[in-house]
Design a protein that fits this description.
The chain is of the alpha+beta class. It contains two helices and three strands. A three-stranded mixed beta sheet has the order 1-3-2, covered by helices on one side. A hairpin with a 4-residue loop joins strand 2 and strand 3. Helix 1 packs across helix 2.
Length: about 70
Amino acid sequence: MEQMFVLERERLGISSEWKLTWNSLKSALMLTNFDTIEVEMSKYLIMDDSFELAIDCIRHELAHVIAGYDSLSY
């Protein structure tokens, strides 16, 4: 997952300051945290064997990074 995150981050031209971290939330697969400059991934996402779901979630959160803080709706 980390490698997929880095590849997508680089492909989109997003700063390497953005890191992927892990959490244990069941209510959200991924979150974008502008305070800590992190994209948080639920450990439950890696339990799903769907590559498409994982890459879609990574791309979705990186889209929030590109769009900025105001793009968040939670």
